[in-house]
Design a protein that fits this description.
The chain is of the alpha+beta class. 30% of the residues lie in helices and 38% in strands.
Amino acid sequence: MQDKIEKIGQGTLIQHGSLNKRVYLMKLHKKDSPFVIQQINNLARKYKYTKIFCKVPVWAAPLFYANGFILEAQIPKCYNNKEAAFFVSKFLSSDRLLEIETDQLYEFSKLIKETDKFQSTEIVKNSSFRIRKLEKSSLEEIAAIYRDVFVSYPFPIYNPGYILESLEKGVQYFGAEVEGKLVALASAEVDKNGKNAEMTDFATLVQHRGRGLALQLLKHMEQEMTKQGIKTLYTIARLNSMGMNKTFLRMNYTYSGTLIKNTNIAGKIESMNVYYKHI
């Protein structure tokens, strides 16, 4: 069961469905701004979704505020190293807000306070693994690792057909391999026009965890994004995964907000932390 991605209006891109119980406005076309809020409100009411989540340029934020949306996070200079991106949300059920992970938020607050301690630690390359950019020949391996690692995911990354489609749309996959076998993955969803990229889809096979592979992948991906002229990097990381939060903090990403009960991942709807970095 996967939520579906649709285009509405002149080119606005949304995702919605019962898996995440939400509407996600992924990309707003400027010509659609006068009526898109009413459309997504109607869609949410029709299917009884409990959250509407939108990533919008800063110029559109007042339109959403006037319609009951709240700011959960932001990325300064996200588009072309100039214009900010705002993550705004509307909760349509009090239950979704009442299920906040208070214990994990407390643990995360302690992690934030300790950031300086591990940011100064040198990142040593692990020579037993090879990091490389992945091509179409790795489709089955990519999908197999995602099936192994995630009980659920907001996008159909278990499907080699989806991986192929995303590659053709410009998503770049990177892998860590040992003895020619992939054991960890991540991807960069690159917006060449906006000069930004989302660093996402990190997954490591259980037997290879604890070796800093996510850190090595992120470092390699940053180098590749720099070569491609990307200026802003960001991620939406699971609040419940202190390891991934530490990875981004260690690489000097800035925490900018928590998306409450936002994403169905690993079998349940979880809160997510937003980070960004300018390169």
